[in-house]
Predict the structure.
Amino acid sequence: MFLLDVTAGPRQGERIRVKDGATVTVGRLVAASFPIPNDATLSGSHFSIAVQGHICLVKDGGSSNGTYVNGARVEQVAVQPGYRIKAGHSEFLVSFQPSFGSWMIPAIPPGWAEIPGRGIQAAQPGRFPTNILFTEEEQELEIPLPEYIQRQQIIVREAIPHVQFAPPAELKLPDAEGAFAMRAQFAATGGALARQRQLYVCKKGIVGIISMTTIDTEMPHVDKMFDAVVAKAQFEPEAVAKSA
């Protein structure tokens, strides 16, 4: 996910988040994705930011006063972290954070590799390919989070009859409507004992889940990594529009 921090102008201190596959427009009109109506030097739809994978493309929208990247006026250009965009009296600093849906983490940990769009996986030679996956529900939750977790366990038991779940542990997380930590174990292929840790978070009615799956012998190596990832992960879902 690319981030544009507003470093100058009427909306200084705010941040634009642009997910993979998304396009955000910036301009004076309220119809813009990120409107800045108090900057009279902006055009109605001044410029757009489109993200595809690790490529962020800035395109001028035919503005009167121009869009500038690192001091040069541009029509269309790919930007990288550290680049600065200026439009009217507003300025933006570009940065990038690995993201998976509405989940963001500061960086891919050393010795781990990105699973595009899904999460990260341990990539050290000779070690089990432990993965940490980030998922979310697309629809707003209509039942209490503990009941949602129970239903998920029923689905898992249908696929893995002898799975064992530890009781969920409730957590207090800032801005979260609910959060629980989970542990489970089951017999994996080849007779190894598989272990799983999960974090369930509900924000804006949307449930986000972080899941780590590994084998018993890897737990001492990866347990602290999971804690570190969870501590710095951000879940920022967009509110789901309700039908009339």
